[in-house]
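Q: What would this complex look like in 3D?
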Amino acid sequence: METTLTDPYLPKLATCVFSDDEESAISAALATVKPWDWKPGGTQEVALVAAKVKIRDLHKVRQGDRCCYCRFPLHGGGHFIVDPEHVLPKSLDAYRPLAFSVWNLGIACKRCNMQYKRAKIDFVIDKDDAAQFQISANYRLIHPNFDLYKDHISITLQMNDDTTLIKYTKLPGSEKGPYTYDYFNLREREVGTFDAAQGLEVPADLEDGALEAQALARQFDQ
Ligand SMILES: [Zn+2]
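A: Here is my prediction, written as structure tokens for the whole assembly.
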């Protein structure tokens, strides 16, 4: 198993440095039941919001303003569209202390975050040993910070007058590519989204959730 910490994106994670006020607000938040959503009011809350913006802005640049899992553009979307993504879910007690750990965060679209990832941890190999949490090989999916997406999946976009088609190509030798493709049902991204955006017929087998995701996807592109 790989033992070195890898950080293939720029700016580096280490460039995210919190002020003293932000650090102390984060420490106080981590002592609560829901650190990320804690709203203490006053200067502490101002510092927490500043820290969250700092984290989000770093990941926006690192990810090219795209979802870390499906790579759909997030630009133009405000807080409503862009979900802060906690790879190890902040809602589980074991990972709550990592709620503000920049290496455990990214930005994702609502579809990937709410419809597919949620609070699951089946993509984590060693779920208990904290020494493994910052190691790429401990994750079956393409990690937003420890793996370069294009090493695993290559994306091409085809556009003509009426339709835009996205194609995910799983790269030979990558196990994370196919895993991520299946985990986030990226096939649906290829076949449905843009046709629906163009007013063409939506495949009948798409569930309500998928339709909702498509509506959100349309908002991304405005
Ligand atoms: Zn996504």
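A: To summarize the key features: The first strand starts at residue 82 and ends at 86. The chain has two domains: 1-148, 152-222.
Q: Very helpful, thank you.
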